[in-house]
Design brief:
293 residues, alpha+beta, Rossmann fold, 2 domains, six-stranded antiparallel beta sheet
């Protein structure tokens, strides 16, 4: 992160009333501190506010800091924009859960000032690199949380094969599979029975979606692994692949999905005293009566 912070990009659904309220306080605060504020060209800023409008593709090369205002989906979007540029992200939670956006609105301005001064705790998280090989070519993308292969516009289940480092694992029946980073273990994979993984453990999680067999359970493998997924040939097979919820491409029986840990990292910024287990207790409503909750 470059100091002093001279340019900051804001990411969020500014048309949402709650987010607009937060941006209305945040944007002038940054500008009073001499920070140039970047927003997307089509951003709907609150009335009376102005910022430098650029293509979102310019956030990575131009920004020293990205502030995501919203939920975890907003921060994931910001992470995609800057993953190859090493720009840190600060998440202000105006969403529902917020495992990644851990700055509360009432703490936002002091936290932003601390970020500008380099006083927040940096937290590097590994990314996933997905490559979808097909007759149409190769599509590639990065993901912070997960890469998902799932059925598309059909009520029928899928038959698909998984391999780890070239070794056959299983022929699955179900709605698809989630390949999750440790960071993403508290996202979609958790709802499919996957384990909660401490975010700095070097592992990947394979979690079947609505498996047709009860014995088809999530698997934890080394983050050095290469995971491959392919579909069994069936006339009614329709599937697609998403990276952090964004469609990478359609997935056909002759295609192959390959997922591994990427060399790139995303840096999240946390307030002093950030405690992952306290975050779990808060978001998952654990520890009733715990005075430290």
């Amino acid at each position: 992160m470059a100091f002093p912070v001279r340019t900051c990009a804001l990411v969020g659904r500014f048309a949402d009333a709650r987010i607009a309220e937060t941006v209305a306080a945040l944007l002038p605060h940054l500008q009073r501190r001499g920070v140039t504020v970047l927003v997307a060209e089509d951003a709907s800023l609150p009335a009376g506010l102005a910022a430098t409008r650029v293509a979102e593709s310019e956030f990575g090369p131009r920004a020293d800091l990205v502030i995501a205002v919203g939920g975890d989906g907003t921060l994931l979007h910001g992470a995609r924009l800057v993953a190859r540029y090493g720009v840190p992200l600060l998440g202000v939670n105006r969403g529902r859960v917020g495992f990644l956006t851990d700055i509360l609105p009432q703490d936002m301005l002091p936290s932003v000032d601390a970020a500008l001064a380099g006083q927040l705790t940096p937290d590097e998280r590994p990314l996933l690199a997905a490559r979808l090989h097909s007759a149409r070519g190769t599509a590639a993308a990065l993901a912070l949380n997960d890469v998902v292969m799932q059925k598309h516009d059909t009520g029928r289940t899928l038959d698909f094969e998984t391999r780890v480092n070239g070794r056959f694992v299983n022929l699955h029946g179900g709605d698809g599979v989630i390949i999750s980073s440790a960071t993403g273990s508290t996202a979609y994979a958790l709802s499919c029975g996957g384990p909660i993984v401490e975010p700095h453990l070097p592992v990947l999680v394979l979690a079947p979606i609505c498996a047709h067999t009860l014995s088809d359970r999530p698997i934890v493998v080394s983050s050095a692994s290469v995971i491959e997924v392919s579909l069994a040939e069936r006339s009614d097979t329709q599937a697609h692949v998403t990276c952090d919820g964004v469609v990478l491409g359609e997935f056909a029986p002759d295609d192959r999905l390959e997922v591994r840990e990427a060399p790139e990292r995303v840096t999240l910024l946390h307030p002093p005293g950030h405690d992952y287990y306290k975050l779990l207790r808060s978001k998952l409503h654990w520890g009733r009566g715990d005075p430290e909750r």
